[in-house]
Every structure is written in C-alpha cells, then in structure tokens.
Backbone:
C-alpha cells in the first residue's frame, strides 16, 4: 500500500483554481479540496459534493422542539390541575407560543450541532496542508494521491498557474 | 457592485485586524466613563434592594414604570440586528454586508441589557429563577398561560439564538484574524473561537447551509419576540393596551428604533476607524429607507389607535387616548409623535438620507422618541384605567433614572469591548461582494 500524500498548490486567481480543478478531475483525481477566503460557488459546482446533511439536523431539532414544547406544557398542566374561571386545564392556543419558541431554540441548537459535526469534526482538512494566506487573499487546491503520482499532480498544479506547491504526507 | 473597487482581499483583512490594535487613550476614557455609570446604576440597584421597591417611583395605580419601559426599549433595540443579519440576508440585500456585524453585536448586548430589567422590577430579585420551569419539591409548574412566561421563553430563546448566530457568523473572520495576529495568547483565543476553521470547500458547504437555516429560524423568531413582548400588554384588559394591532405595531417600532440605534452607533465608528470604503453612503441610504417605511407604520399605528378608541364607543378607551394627547403626560405624548413621525419626514429626500450629520441627528431623536413611546404605552395606560377613584400620576425617581443611565453605560461598555476584540466588520462577507480576483485583472 502506498502512503497517501497531500499536494497543495497556492493560487491568486479564481479562474486558475477552476482550471486546476477541471484538469485534475480530467486526470482522475477525485480527492480534491479547495481552500478559499470566501465561499466559491463555481468550485462547489465543479467538485459537486453531496448536499449538506445539516438540513436533517435542523429538521430533527425543530420537530423535537415542537414535540417537547407540546409535551412540556400539556403534561405539566395536567400534573397539577388548577381550574381557573372554569377555563380548560389544557389550553392549546397559549401553549403554541411555547411550542413555537422551543421549535426555534432546538432547531438552532441542532443546526449548530450539525455544523460542528459535519463542518468541523468529520473530514477535517489536515493542518499541514493549510496556509495562513488562505484566510486572507490566496486560494489553495489540495490533492490527496499515492506517492507515485506526486510529480504528475505537481505538473498539473504548476501548469495551471500555482505560485507555490507543497507536498506533505498525510494520514489516510 | 455598490462597494468601492479600491478594496482588495488583503486590504480588507488588514483593515479589520488594524481595528483590533491596542486601544487608544480615547477608548479607555470612554470605557471608564461607561464603567462609572455602570457603577452608579449598580449602586442605585443595591440601594433599591436594600430599601425596597418603594424607591422606584411606583405609586398606586402605576406599578409598571421605567424598568418595564427600559425592558421594552432594549428588546426593541435588539431587533434590528437580527433584521439586518437574517431577514435582509434572506432578501439578499447587499447594503447589509458592512453593518450587519455591528448590528448583531448590538442585538446581543441589547438583549443582555433588556434581560436585567424584569429582574430589577422584582421585589425579591434573588428569586428571579422562579420564572423558569424547573422540577421542584412542590411539584408545581409555572403558568404557561401567562404572557409573562411566554416572554421568558421568547427573550431567552432570542438571546441564545442571536448569540449563536453572532458567534457562528464570525468563524471565518476570526480565522482570518488568527492567521494575522502574532502574540501567542491572542492567537490561542482566536484559534479556539475559530473552531479550527480552514476555509476548505467542505467547510464552506456546511457553513453556508447552517447559516441559511440560522437565518431562516431567526427570521420568524425576531418577529415573534416583540409580538410576545407586546402581548404582555395586549393580553391585559387595560384601556390603551387591549388591542389587536399591538404585535405588528411593536415589531415595526422595534425595527424602527433598532435601525435608529445602528445609525447612531455606526456613524461615529465609521469616522473613528476610517471605514468610509466599507460603510458607504448607499448603505445608509438603504437603512434610512427602512426607517422611512417603519416610521410610516408607527405613525399609522398612532393614528389608528385613536380611530379604534373612537370607533369602539368604549368611554374608557376614548378617555385614555384623550388623556394621552391632552392630559398630564401630553408633553411625553407629543415628544413621541414629533420624534417618531415628524422628524423622520426629511428622510423622504435622498439628500438627507445621504447626509450623515442629519442622519445622526434624526437617529438620536428616534431613540428618544421610541423610549417615550414605550413609556406612554405603559405608564399612561396604567395611570388612568376604568375607575376614576383609582387614577394616579407616576413620576420617575432618581433611582430609576440612575439605573436607566447605568443600562445605557452597560450596553456601551459591552460594545466598546466588542470593538476591540472581535471583527466589527465582516471580513468574509465584504470579500464576497468584491469582484473575485481573476487573471485578467492583473
């Protein structure tokens, strides 16, 4: 088994990044990662990741919040029934406010959890491949490939206008 | 592109990082002034706890006074932050980009300020946690049918969600600062706050989605919070409170006052930190148009309240509104009308919307007017209800005035700390509206 290597090219221009991504994909390199200081929608289309699962976290959180809002208000009212002015013990319309607020609260907290799990814990980009300029004004294209392909990847990156190419071994 | 094309990616980063340099003497002076007013507020509060709520100007029949006014005022100020960051995000309004971080910070600090007032308004403030539902040995739960409990849920949800939105929105920017600062302690703190952000397309994908859902959740939330606050009043059978227009009336008023406060805060910040290339006149033009719009809604609400009181044929409602316009509190009523409806009229002209001096002056009047709006709704309604034998006049006491001044200082104190520790202009979103660097631009 050949050790996996990471190769990263530093770019100044978005169109060069797109060229590099297209060329790498044409040569069969699918394990790509693009670093950028802003979200790049063209790159997103080009790399075509599956839709973010954060949506399911939000949906689950919202539904859980609504259910807990209902359960909480109804069960606590029923636990100690105090009849006021012969009004119903369990009165749904005022409870909707609580249901609504808890839907939003749980939805937001689960969205945060979804972001942490998917964006920050799973599939972290290796630190050795990161360059401080990627948060400022440079873009990076990272390729994970077996050791024997390093030189061909370097060629592709250089030919598309990379200003700098770094190679490092990464786990995986 | 409404933004100035002189900006480049690297200049944006350097400019924002430069705002976080060691605070100047002026900053320390402002901070110390804020801190001393916070101290005055604290002393007033301790005095009130020691002596009792009697020092707070409460007189029969007015037992909701300045503290509740301050509470509604600060919750209102908190509204424009989420309006600008969430609602205008969903509408893709570009003028939000440069100001939304300041507005969001303002939201969080205003909710932190607002949350103190219901506690100060309690006779035994150390028992404030009774408002929250928690299992206890009496096995008795809070009354979920009470608007005051809705308020607890709405405001605490709002604080949580707006703080999360604020902190999450900052992650890419904090990463950019982390990569620029050299001192080790600062780098460690920013590294933690940036959650190890690297800006890979994988991160941007999930981040973009999460941000969209946050905006989508915060939008109905912001509308619900001030509606719930308005129901604190509208659910009560008090003439002047018991109307169906309260929810939209309060939400529009909240956005109106919040935008006023954003303008009051950003004009000096723009000047001090030389952000003329970031916060452009177009941005102010956009905010001023929203102020025109909400001022119109608020003015309509003032008028329609009189119509409803007259049309209802209820003598109690009618006497309440006549009392507002010509009674003991008439001065406050007309301050409100003039500040909120008459003074914003010049904004109909684009020259005024683009003149920062005028805009600043108008925004100060809006802040004053909106404080009095809440005072009028709360105090005037309570001082004259159904039974003439139970009428009375309320006057603000020095304790209340001290705590109110302290609350402004408390808000500005947080804001000053924010300006020197966190990016008050969004680095990544400003870059997003700049043209992307392409080979041809060389």
Residues:
């Amino acid at each position: 088994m050949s050790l996996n290597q990471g190769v990263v090219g530093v770019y100044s221009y978005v169109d060069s990044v797109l060229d590099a991504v297209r060329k790498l994909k044409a040569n069969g390199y699918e394990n790509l990662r693009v670093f950028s200081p802003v979200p790049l929608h063209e790159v997103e289309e080009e790399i075509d990741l599956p839709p973010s699962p954060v949506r399911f976290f939000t949906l689950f959180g919202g539904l859980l919040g609504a259910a807990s809002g209902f359960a909480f208000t109804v069960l606590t009212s029923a636990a100690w029934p105090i009849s006021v002015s012969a009004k119903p013990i369990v009165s749904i319309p005022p409870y909707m406010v609580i249901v609504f607020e808890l839907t939003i609260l749980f939805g937001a907290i689960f969205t945060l959890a979804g972001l942490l799990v998917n964006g920050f814990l799973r599939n972290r980009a290796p630190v050795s491949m990161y360059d401080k300029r990627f948060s400022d004004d440079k873009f990076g294209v990272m390729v994970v490939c077996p050791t024997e392909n390093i030189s061909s990847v370097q060629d592709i990156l250089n030919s598309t206008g990379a200003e700098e190419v770094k190679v490092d071994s990464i786990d995986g | 592109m409404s933004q100035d094309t002189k900006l480049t990616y690297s200049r944006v980063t350097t400019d924002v990082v430069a705002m976080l340099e060691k605070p100047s003497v002026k900053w320390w002076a402002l901070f110390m002034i804020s801190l001393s007013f916070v101290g005055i507020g604290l002393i007033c509060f301790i005095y009130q706890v020691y002596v009792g709520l009697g020092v707070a100007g409460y007189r029969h029949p007015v037992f909701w006074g300045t503290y509740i006014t301050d509470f509604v005022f600060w919750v209102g100020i908190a509204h424009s932050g989420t309006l600008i960051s969430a609602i205008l995000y969903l509408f893709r309004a570009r003028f939000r980009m440069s100001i939304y971080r300041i507005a969001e910070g303002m939201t969080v600090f205003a909710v932190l300020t607002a949350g103190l007032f219901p506690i100060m308004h309690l006779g035994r403030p150390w028992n404030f946690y009774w408002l929250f539902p928690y299992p206890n040995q009496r096995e008795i739960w809070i009354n979920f049918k009470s608007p005051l409990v809705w308020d607890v849920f709405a405001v605490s949800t709002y604080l949580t969600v707006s703080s999360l939105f604020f902190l999450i929105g900052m992650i890419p920017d904090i990463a950019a600062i982390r990569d620029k600062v050299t001192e080790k302690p600062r780098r460690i703190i920013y590294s933690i706050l940036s959650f190890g952000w690297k800006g890979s397309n994988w991160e941007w994908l999930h981040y973009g989605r999460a941000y969209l859902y946050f905006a989508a959740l915060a939008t109905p939330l912001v509308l619900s919070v001030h509606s719930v606050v308005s129901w604190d009043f509208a659910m009560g059978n008090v003439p002047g409170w018991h109307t169906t227009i309260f929810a939209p009336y309060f939400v529009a008023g909240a956005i109106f006052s919040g935008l006023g406060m954003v303008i009051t805060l950003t004009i000096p910040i723009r000047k001090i930190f030389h952000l003329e290339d970031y916060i452009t006149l177009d941005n102010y033009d956009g905010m001023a148009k929203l102020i025109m719009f909400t001022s119109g809604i608020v003015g309509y609400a003032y008028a329609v309240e009189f119509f409803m009181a007259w049309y209802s044929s209820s003598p109690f409602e009618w006497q309440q509104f006549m009392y507002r316009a010509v009674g003991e509190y008439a001065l406050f009523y007309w301050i409100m009308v003039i500040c909120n409806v008459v003074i914003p009229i010049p904004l109909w002209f684009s020259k005024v919307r683009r003149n920062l001096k005028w805009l600043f002056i108008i925004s100060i009047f809006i802040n004053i007017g909106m404080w009095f709006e809440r005072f009028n709704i709360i105090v005037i309604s309570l001082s004259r209800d159904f039974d003439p034998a139970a009428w009375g006049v309320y006057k603000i006491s020095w304790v209340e005035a001290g705590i109110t001044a302290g609350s402004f200082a408390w808000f500005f104190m947080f804001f000053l700390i924010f300006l020197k520790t966190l990016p008050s202009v969004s680095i990544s979103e400003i870059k997003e509206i700049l043209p992307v660097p392409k080979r041809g631009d060389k």
